[in-house]
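User: Some background: our group keeps a shared notebook of sequences we're curious about, and every so often someone picks one and asks for a predicted structure to add to the entry. Today it's my turn. The entry only has the sequence so far, pasted here. Could you supply the structure so I can complete it?
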Amino acid sequence: MIFSQPLTSGILQRRYKRFLADVLMDDGETITAHCPNTGSMLGCMTSGARVWLSRSDDPKRKYPHTWELVEADGVFVGIHTGRSNALVEEALRAGRVPELAHFTGLRREVKYGLHNSRVDLLLDLNGVDCYVEVKNVTAAVQGGVALFPDAVSSRGSKHLRELIAMVEAGHRAALIFCVQREDVHQVRPADAIDPEYGIWLRRAHAAGVEVLALGARVSPCGIELMRPLPVDLSIRGPSSPL
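Assistant: Of course. Here's the predicted structure to add to the notebook entry:
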């Protein structure tokens, strides 16, 4: 994914009301940008961090700038959760997900399940439906471990239950973690943050839901999912920070 226009940079002053961020731009102007991330943005919203923004020419937008990247722990991190589905679709079409290769059809945002959910991607794999949920990952801890979720996510647990139901109905189902940073080598459930999500993730895997992760190459020019990452579902002891 190449950004359609060059990003502009500045220094993060604060993120507030979940969807807003004040940024001191390099030209000296302080602007308010849209923050397209509903999570806690653990480790990615430190005041004083350098951030990169895109700009929309839509005159109807109250805040024309959108926060895209932040430099955290010396690496670029893509915080725009709305881009994760497109990034995964791009990787699927490029054949970078061998577990889900050779699909003959792809549909987006399809209604399914028992709770009026919408699956991110629905693949036709030689006549077999495969329901794919995508989760954007930005949080990481020392040692190169990415964590999800970065806040309690009842919605995420609901999606896992929906995927389990699809497998039980005879379909395929997959969860793909879209990791928008380069400094990690594996993904783990953030049990210390949301233990229920960790329980449902392990139940889903045991039920046959395919749990995959892709790591991105991130720069102010663009973002691309380039490498598979292992997902560690082992249960950590109570003294572990993970």
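Suggested note for the entry: Residues 8-73 form a domain with the OB fold (Dihydrolipoamide Acetyltransferase, E2P) fold (CATH 2.40.50.580). The CA atoms of residues 166 and 173 lie 7 Å apart.
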